[in-house]
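Posting here for the record, re: zinc ion.
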Amino acid sequence: MIDISYEIGGKKINPNNLKDALERAVVAAVTDGIKKKIKSTRCLDHNGSARIKVKGRSLSDLSMEVSGCCNSFIEKVKKELS
Ligand SMILES: [Zn+2]
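Prediction output follows.
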């Protein structure tokens, strides 16, 4: 499992609680895209999982932060994302 969280305009959002249908669709598409790209969901060395924080000032200006148990796993996940 990949843990994906969202922080828009400095606030954490829960994709399931978005009231705006368009915003929900954007977030769902981003989540889908991430899940399709990432194949290494677990670190083979430590069995740690990846956490991805999608953040930006608005939904049209998003960047991603990857965290995990070690640098080599983080780099691997970043490569798969790009
Ligand atoms: Zn690791």
